[in-house]
């Protein structure tokens, strides 16, 4: 995604991949990059969904941090525990098909 710049006609199409990449990471540098990306997307097309998506991502990141969940597997016995952001969004009533 980094190769697609704000002046590129495909830039607006990076919102969903950026959201998924952001939801999947717990790395602070990657979160900062995704945040900057969403702010650039907001400048190109100030749609409310851009701000809402960034707010949801920040909530996911905070939830991961509060629950000490990382991108790595946390093991509880033999079972691997993963943070399921899709289930979290579904349970929160966030049922976007397209951002």
Polypeptide structure, described:
The two termini are 16 Å apart. It is globular, with a radius of gyration of 15 Å. The chain has 4 helices and 2 strands; from the N terminus they run H-H-H-E-E-H. The chain is mostly helical. It has one domain. It holds the Pfam family Fungal_trans_2. InterPro entries: Fun_TF.
List the keywords:
4 helices; single chain; 6% strand; two-stranded antiparallel ribbon; mainly alpha; Fun_TF; 99 residues; 54% helix
Strands, total number: 2
The SSE string, one letter per element, is HHHEEH
Number of structural units classed as domains? 1
What would you report as the Rg, rounded to the nearest angstrom? 15 Å
Which regions are unreliable across 5 or more consecutive residues at pLDDT < 50?
none
Shape: globular
Number of helices: 4
How are the strands of the largest sheet arranged? 1-2
The proportion of residues forming helix, as a percent range, comes to 40-55%
| Cα-to-Cα separation, first versus last residue | 16 Å
| Strand-pairing-aware structural class | mainly alpha
The chain-level mean pLDDT equals: 84
β-strand percent reads 5-15%
Main beta sheet strand tally, sense and closure: 2 strands, antiparallel
Summary?
This protein has helices at residues 15-24, 28-44, 48-66, 85-91, and strands at residues 74-76, 79-81.
SSE order and pairing:
Layout: H1 15-24, H2 28-44, H3 48-66, E1 74-76, E2 79-81, H4 85-91
Antiparallel strand pairs: 1-2
Helix pairs in contact: 1-2, 1-3, 2-3
InterPro entries: Fun_TF
């Amino acid at each position: 995604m980094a190769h697609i710049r704000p002046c590129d006609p495909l830039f607006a199409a990076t919102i969903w991949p950026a959201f998924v990449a952001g939801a999947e990471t717990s790395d602070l540098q990657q979160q900062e990059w995704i945040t900057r990306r969403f702010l650039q997307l907001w400048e190109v097309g100030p749609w409310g969904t851009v701000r809402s998506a960034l707010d949801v991502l920040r909530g996911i990141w905070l939830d991961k941090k509060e629950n000490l969940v990382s991108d790595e597997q946390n093991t509880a016995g033999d079972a691997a525990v993963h943070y399921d952001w899709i289930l979290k969004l579904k349970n929160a009533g966030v049922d976007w098909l397209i951002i």
